[in-house]
Amino acid sequence: MSREKPLSQKTTRNTRYIPRHHKRILCIFPKYSRSFGTFHHAYPLRGNVRAFMPPQGILVVASYLPKEWEVRFIDENVRSAIRADFVWADVVIVSGMHIQRPQMNQINELAHREGKITVVGGPSVSGCPEYYPEFDILQLGELGDATDQMIEYLDLHSNRPQKQIRFETKERLPLNEFPIPAYHLLNFDQYFLGNIQFSSGCPYHCEFCDIPALYGNNPRLKTPEQVLAELDAMLKYGNPGAVYFVDDNFVGNRRALMQLLPHLIDWQKRNGYPIQFACEATLNLAQSPKLLEMMREAYFCTVFCGIETPETEALQAISKTHNLSMPILEAIKVLNNYGMEVVSGIIIGFDTDTPETADKILEFINLSQIPMLTINLLHALPKTALWSRLEQAGRLVSDENRESNIEFLMPYEQVVEMWRRCVTTAYEPEFLYQRYAYNMEHTYPNRIEVPNSPARASWANIKKGLTIMSNLLLRVGLLGNYRKTFWNMALPALKAGKIEQLIHVGLVGHHLIKFTTECAKKEESASFYSQKIRKTVHT
């Protein structure tokens, strides 16, 4: 049955829906395909870690569901859902990104084998509903009136609908009314990082990015009080040690950020600086010294900047001219001066690329001294200006054996080899550790000195540090194939008492080096968004 109109008992933000029936809801977040950004090679060094970050979206949905219902959560990056999980549930809710599409459809199939109602929401289905033809219910758009309609439908129906039903959000729930994610349903010790969201949306229009189409150009905001409540909730269920602000652009609304940062500083001081912060921001953050000073005091230690390319012509062509408001190398140095290690996005495959592009990228890496860069092949996402332009030009390619869905202007194999050369050169152990040595000397000392508080010197943190150090010394220092390079970095750090820095460099560097080895053997994809077939096995 198709349902175009809202259900009769429509809920409002001021009236919580009271369900008539008891329901058991199984929320599943699909497994990611392994990629540069999953840090999976670092997990064994951390002990219990099984996944990168908790999935914010589906945890917010789990928290938004009626309190009268039983809700379970499975992150398949931690463990796969088994038949008993599906048997227990009345409804299975799934969310994810385009890269997780095969896994989401597989979960749907397993749930249907047990006769369960299935729901899919999140960015992928919101952008491309046609990717999910077999799901019973599609929740398109963000949390809002469609979510309320979906909840009421699930309350009033026990059997699968005869035809797919779509609920599309017309009125979004303001971010300042979002509930705290259901952190009580997970174990923080199993995650590499914690994460939090302050805003949604980005004021820019980069050609390859789908954020404006999905979330808008006017960043919507949570209140500082919400952010602090979420941080408190995290600490209640375990301290991840580092928290990443997953905002599309953390500095999208600078006035709001100026209001948030004093609250973060106060929270850190009251709690003994238990957490390092990281965020994603545009490079022009370097032109805001007041923001940078407050971010430094709040203990922001890492900032991801979508630099994309050092080539001016390419930045203009992809509508990323805000990266040109000051010289890129100068902006990176400014951020380093405030103690922030810069992580950069780099993309290969722009129409402006030439055979010399790889040389220019490698020169930029050397001059910038950025240790970690996510080097990807360009991939066109639906709902982007890039997709529309290439579709009109007949340059979108559907081939599951390719690393990208774009017909590049340069020969495909040449572009892939440029990517492979950049990756394998950038993460050659000596070159990588050289850049880390620069940051250990010129960036990390610019951070504030945090107190040796009970929160930082807890037995759990000491145990975590001992675990990582022993694993680093054994797996890298004794058994690693780059152990000589490791010791050249580690011995001076140990003598200087820079244990935290050594752990950071050792952990992240190990993943980068191991992942690069697989790239050199053509065992890993050249794009996080690659359409190459990946297999996920359910047990």
UniProtKB/TrEMBL annotation:
Residues 188-421 form the Radical SAM core domain. Its cofactor is [4Fe-4S] cluster. The keyword Isomerase does not apply. The keyword Glycosyltransferase does not apply. Keywords: Iron, Iron-sulfur, Metal-binding, S-adenosyl-L-methionine. This is B12-binding domain-containing radical SAM protein. It comes from Brasilonema octagenarum UFV-OR1.
